[in-house]
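Hi there, hope your week has been kind to you so far. Thanks so much in advance, here it is.
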Amino acid sequence: MGKQKREVPELNSSSTADIAFLLLVFFLMTTSMAVNKGLQRLLPPIPTEEQKQEDMKVKERNILVVLINSQDELMVNKKPMQLADLRATVKEFVQNPANDPNMPEKKEITIDLIGNIAVTKDHIISLQNDRGTSYAAYIEVQNELIAAYNELRNEFAQAKWGKRFEECTEAQQKAIQKVYPQKISEAEPKNYGGAK
C-alpha cells in the first residue's frame, strides 16, 4: 500500500496587510523622533534703502574678536587665550564695569521695570573661524559665549529681583535682555592658519 501525501493547509494571509498597517501606525504614534535644534540666532532685518546708503562704522573698542584657527586654538583680540578664560573675558567686555576706555562705550538708557541704567548696547562679539576649525571646537566656543550672557542675565535677575532669569516674568526677561543684549556676529570661515 502506497503512502498518501497529506496536504499542508494554507495559512490565511488575508489579514496580514491589515496587521502590518496597524503595527506601522502603532510604532509611528509611540516613537519619538530626534529633532535637530541647531543654534538660535536672530538674523537682522533687511535694511531699507536709507540704511544701505549709510555706512555704519563700528568703533574698534566696541568689538571683541574671537578667532578659532585651524588647529582649534583660540585667539581673542589677536592674543592667545584658553577656552576656560573666554567666559570671564566676554562677561567683563559686555559689562565694562570700570568704564574702561578700551572696552565698549557705556550709554545711559531707560528700560521699563529697571529705570535709567548705563549699558554697553553697541558691543559686538565677532566670532570668526578658520575653514579647518573642528566642529567640536566651534561648538565649545559658542557654548562659552552663550553661557557668558546667561550668567550676566542670571546675576542681574538675582540682584534686582532675587530670582534666576528663567524664573522672571516675560516683561522682566525682556528688560534684562535690553541690559545685556546678545550680540554675536559670525563671519564666514576663512583660511587664517595657525596662531602666532
